[in-house]
## 1
Amino acid sequence: MLFYCYSEIGDSTIESRLGDADYSYYFVLKAYLPLLEKLGETRVIEAIDEGFLADCRRETENGRQCYLLAFAPPHKIPFEVPCPTIPVFAWEYSSIPNREFISDPQDSWCYALEHFGQALTHSSYAMNVVRNDIGPDYPIESVPAPLWDNWATLRAEAPSRAPVKDLTLTLGTAVIDSRDFAINSESIAPASQVARPPGGNTGDTESCHNLDIEFGEMNPDVWMVGFYPPEGWGAWSKTTSPWIMLPSVVSGEVRLVIALNGHAGNIGKDIQVQIGDQCVTLQPQLEISEYEFELNVTQPSNFVMFKGLDTTAERSIVDPRTIAIGLARIAIESKSSPPTEAAPKLNTVEHKLKLNGVVYTSILNPRDGRKNWEDILTAYCQAFQDREDVTLILKMTYNDMSGYLEDVFALLCQLHPFKCRIVVVHGYISGAEYRALISATSYIVNASRSEGQCLPLMEYMSCGVPAITPDNTAMADYANTDNAFIVDSSPEPHYWPHDPQQVFTTLWYRPNWETLFEAYQDSYKVANTDPERYQRMSRAAWESQQAFCSSEALLPRLQSLLSRIGKE
């Protein structure tokens, strides 16, 4: 047998498209390959194009049994393929789309799945939904991503892995640590001792790289806090103390150039600009003007902070924003660096995290409304408001930090005061770093409204990490009180994700915040006072995944579906 495997996102694009629609299908395809290779040859294709069609025809004409496994939503899979097509899709709602939305009948998954004649999904919940909507005899099997077999080494370490941590985690990507910031209910600003890029090492403060930053468009290597989105020419500020986080530490003798203008009461007003121990004053004008300064920064810093701004100007219905200054450009030239020495990317240097106490990790796309990261953060901060021996790591699977950083900071201000630690990890991390993150985690946290299977939860539990999670949708197959602290949830109206009208035609599940709060408290108590129960939960976690996503459990289901193709 020959299995062609297709996903819209491939090896060359996954890092840049992390968090895009359907990005997780790439990881499912990669996990499926070893299982498929037990039955035949696999070929990963980048597109369902003429090259693939010609190759498939040749193999079929030579008498070879071919299948196309399309890891994609059914409405995105082409119909005309010269071999049986098996949609492999995740689904987490109470019904599948049963109508066309504009003029394409394939918008209806009932129509598309009936055309293909068979399908694979990743949970008994999704399998039952499809059969409820199409018919009880529809050829579909629940075959989640076969992940369990991949984690034998970390699973073997589980009995000796302490729930209370004392270790250092090294990550080669951008990291935001709440302990690096002064937080209050009004604002969040860098603490005075911070002197490193967000992905950087505190020992690398001697290096000062040349910077020339335009603020008219999103720049993934420069983060703006207290500013509105870019507008082409630059960006307006919206708070009295906005700041910029640079990709390089500034130190020594530098030339600083700032291009900005002022709004309302800020025109001609003294505005302070601070880098490290150096503070200069300028008076913004109505038009964008450049201001140049010679500085000797003896306290290295990678933050440019603005102070003394006035946001009290009268706002209109047309533009209700609180505007103070408009920032167009910042250039910093080091007198000790070669003119061509540019700042490194944020993910080119290491960041070391010293972790002590109970560590909670959640891996999610902050722009995915199902993931409910706000509840994860608020319940954590409320549960551990007065505890310093806990850390919540939010590993964000999204390629643009500016798309969520402001929301995280705003929530931290609302939650102030708290002593617990929050660490945001941004960007793609290596396999070794991911394994180290698993080993550093006491509990994996999920508070989703629905899941197609939840790969991070499955991976962590396969390694023996107990969970905090609801038991709705796919999680019902493997989450229980033996291996997790269960978060209650209840049905809530919602719409199919690709419905442009967003009509409430289906259900997802609203987690109960109080039980999430209690799960944090109960899990902390177990980690600190009941190591025997923690170890029982750890073993139950990997045993549940063995039954759910091991090759031994899944191979017969895959063979069963293949045997039905062409016989219906």
Note: The CA atoms of residues 143 and 558 lie 7 Å apart.
## 2
Amino acid sequence: MQACTRCGSELGYAGRPCALCLSPATFRLEDGAVREIAGATRAERARLPEFALPPHLRGKKIRAPRGRRAIRTLTLVGRWTWNSLAIASIVHVLVFLLAFLFRDELHVALERVQQLSLEREAAAPIVAPQPDELKVPDLQADATEMQIPREVIKDLAAGDPEYEPPPEHKPYAPEFEVAPVRPAVATPLPRLPARTNSGLGAGQPAPSANEAPSGAGLLQNRRGDSRAAALKRYGGGEDTEQAVNLGLEYLADRQSADGSWDPNRGFEVRPRWATDDNGYRGAITALCTLPFLAAGHSPDEGRYAPNVRRAIQWLLKNQTSDGCISYRGVMQMYAHTVATLALCEAYGMTRDGRLKTAAERAVRFLERTQGTGGGWDYQAVISGPMRGVERNDLSISGWAVLALKSARAVGLGVNDLTLERLGDLYDRHSLDNGETYYADREYGELPATRKGIGMVGVGLTSRVILDPDRFLARNAAAEKLLLAKKPQWIQFLEPSYGPSAPNFHTFYGLYYGTLGIFLKNQGEGPAWEQWNAALKKTLLENQVLKGPRKGSWPAADSWIGPIMGDLYSTACSVLCLEVYYRYNPMHQPETHVTPAPEVAHGDGHPPAPKPEPKPLKPVTIGGVTLDLAKPGDRAKYLRLLGKEQGLAAVPVLVSHLEDESATVRTTALYEVGRLKAKDAVEPVTRMLGRSENRDLRLTICDTLGKLGDKSAAQPLIKLLSDEDPIIVTGASRALVRLSGGKDFGTNRHAWADYFGVNP
């Protein structure tokens, strides 16, 4: 029996049709037997009418076998699946091509959306000119000049509920007069001894406030009548204020929604490498925050308070648990030092407890990461071409000077040793002709021996702030160099010949030169007048006054400008034109210092007074006369003595290992290590038993490693169990140097076994 090819049912013989679908049957005989029977195929969808069907099939739906129906269904599903995937692929390819072709337009559209969100801020304020004399208005106005007010002004009586009294009139502060201050909230920090009587001052801040607390008198000229008086006294005017307002409006317009500034937006035509976030966002954001603070706009007050608040919040968001403020670790210490300065000033203007905590953490990070040479490098680690060799960058350290001294001025504690070591750093790297070295070691292609005009301004500003009396002669020489090359726009356009010979005329150098001469001369005198006249001419004549970049200054300098863009040049230029009221140059630290309580001895009586030391006579060495009563001169004497006499100076150096000044002790250690005087191993080792601070203990470890005497290994191995992990690291590095390159980390037993076998 065979099956019907149509419905699969069994077929009879003798050519009978299929009993199920009534398809006619055919058969083939071979050798008298039926070999093949097949139903004749009729149309695919042919159906007999119901009356023509056999009785047992009427009313039933005739379907193909289940297996054949399943195969047909799967085939249909597969066909539509592949069709859907093909259509989806074509659509995705088209979308990708459209996005690729119109990527620039999409980027511009996104930027425009951000700009529109910030353009809701009001336009740049226009400073109204001050009338020279009172003019009586003409009350007989012409009919064509009459204008109907948009609103009807109600004449309310004093008893009316909607009545508001007129604001109290405040007279303009007369020339050479500063607005009075009122006491501010006392700070719980201990009083600190004053170190200088000029520049930014030092010590505990005196109570001060205008409309709000403003940083112990240092920042008091930033608001109100004090600002107007300072502007007039120190050489500013309506023209400089108009330029400042336009510059601030430009910076506010370029601020991103998250409060930061995108460095790529500082380019009118973006360089090829600036198509993505180049990592300078942290440094440029901190720099762009300073001009708003200098103009009196705090996070809580002022026209640009929302901009300042967003910027400060962004800086706080990027402060890590150790106190460091940076962005992706790029230009880490540049970003951190400038951000610390911004936080200290913001705290001084608001007395916000949250800002105080953040500023203190940032200051502590600076203190912890200061190198033994007194400065900082691009990264907050001891770096250099050789392991254990640090690099001190005086450009980065200049921002640290401003940050630390501002911190102390607003009442935040700063370690005296940190400032002393900074003073010694600028002492070592400042020349008698007024020039300042860029660094003490190379950084990639940047040679350490560069001494451009930009570094002259950095050195002058730092020395004036740290100790003007100590650096009196070198500051005068630096001022002479700067006045010989007063600001001129054409200087920015000079070519730059790479890292070894760049064009040092930059907006960065202009900023530091302006601040240094202003603080040195306290905003008065012929030197400041000459510089200020050239400064205003250069900046006021070259500010962009129309177009989409209105208010900016082109990044015309050929060294830093192509890297940082006009956000950098505009921020520096605005800070230059705010110098008249940014800092109060007459600010003096408080003379009263709270004495430290006396510590009673075991018998309950205070200690006996120490005999006064005999006065030390001045010493002349290397053509320089030094007053050994001053710690700075003693340190310089030890350096000159070590260079002049070599190992013969070791006894004098050893005697100064117990000097009362930590700076002198540090210098003596450095010279002993440089001379590799093995005779000094014992007195240097004895210093570990005294109560020294962390920095000096690190210097002791480093010196023991340099001396090369393996007898110093045992005290260094003991230090591997110290509670301070930084001291442990310093001792480990010294042991590596002593062993000639072996490194067992902090494993005391491994080190003891090694030096036991190799004494």
Note: The radius of gyration is 41 Å.
## 3
Amino acid sequence: MALDGFVISNLVYELNNTILNAKISKIAQPENDELLFTLKGANGQFRLAMSASASLPFLYLTETNKPSPLTAPNFCMVLRKHIANGRITRIYQPHMERIIHFEIEHLDELGDLRTKTLIVELMGKHSNIIFCNSDGMIIDSIKHVSSMMSSLREVLPGRAYVLPATQEDRLNPLEVTEDAFMVSVMAKPVTITKAIYTSFTGISPVVASEICHRASIDGDVPTDALSADEKKHLFHNFIWLTDDVKNHNYSPNIVNHGKEPVDFSCFRLTEYVGGADAAAHAAGGLEFSYSMQEYDSISAVLEHYYASKNVYTRIRQKSVDLRKIVGTALDRNRKKYQLQEKQLKDTEKRDKYKVYGELIHTYGYGLAEGAKELEALNYYTNEMIKIPLDPTLDAKANAQKYFDKYNKLKRTYEALTDLTEETRAQIEHLESISTSLDIALTEDDLVQIREELMEYGYIKRKRSDKKAKVKSKPFHYLSSDGYHIYVGKNNYQNEELTFKFATGNDWWFHAKGMPGSHVIVKSNNEELPDRVFEEAGKLAGYYSKGRENDKIEIDYLQKKNVKKPNGSAPGFVVYYTNYSLTIHPDISELTLLES
């Protein structure tokens, strides 16, 4: 995620063109670390949302309202007391930092005009919203930071506000000269990308990598690996990007991987999509796994990105307990499987002991008393071998000793073969549940997964645990040729789709040799176009454990040839005749319908 100084500069530019001189009509604090301002000005009414969340800090214009608590928190009451009905007179970003200052004029209790400053610091876990008077003294903040919490900077009422000490030894990217670039950046004994983002305020690793990509330079090599001409070329690409900031030439966008947002920027990120490599990539018959969606404003980018990202973040938080249960069970079964395989390998010498016993029976009649070995012809291999003997036992007892070892290992082998197969099946089952957790997007999707874990004893079912009502439904896609494609989100849905929903002539798809969703294409008893097979294969690849792979092999066949073994776990199938295709799991062009 690149909420860096360049994105902030785009945001400040947008705010200056929309809410500058607007009046603050409402102030709300819907969450502990979040504020929502309602503003009215010459350009109309706006809502300004901001958050000091440690995981997802943000600030953007929005049309969405959020309910507020019945009793306003203290920080909200302080803001209402001082700047309710105030007017935003200045919005600026200091030193290209991830900080926005809002200067606000208001009337005090005596009717005199005063100025206060609201400072929004969007700096990851150090994010904060700080309210100061005209002398730069802190009135209050949404998060209090004492000297016990930070030895570098206190953020408490009555303290003087100081900028975070992040820019002291860094250059302003909008003011750097070529000499400074060469001396301060290119002289660092680190990779080129790191040299760039550690030398300037406002530049994230994503932007540093993008600058290297635009210059056709590998950002992971050391700075001293570049020639003088290459360093000059890199500097020119750096300047061309900063010129876009100076001239306010922004291109707000979100980069998606499949349906999941992975990054955003105020510039085109050519290292993900587009640029000079796109034609070569396409000419090679490959498709990009990333797609870029452009927006009219950076606020729209931030709102859409955080709304989408919150879905993934929230569901991952909700599934932490389930992931821990599955992970623990997987670790335990994998260790057990390794031990069982080792023990199984130890039984491989059982036949040797059987042969030893037989050979002693055959040739041991002439053994001298106290002999320590017998040299005999192995009539199975026609080779001479030496058989160790217990000198305290006669030939018959030595032979019986080897037969006893053989029989013990044989029994162990027979028992372990079944146990190892059972453990392997449990691992495959748990891996499929783990993949289902990766696919889940809503709390309803987790209900069936929890139910499956209860059914198979991984979670103890309490008396109060009633069978949950199923609300989650499979993903429903429409192919480019108008055919309906369904994707199971978990093992129960896979079972339902394959053996109850699909008919014999529908087509079934699954990633080869790895956990993943069952994908069903409703054929309507028609011959499917080639493009439908390709699109269904992409879905089978994307909704599998291998979704990050560049290429995945997909098995597909008609549903009537898919069988379910008796007593197997839900979603487990076998098939013996199938077709295969190799795809790149990019589903960005496919249409997801409402379930």
Note: Residues 275-288 have pLDDT under 50 and may be disordered.
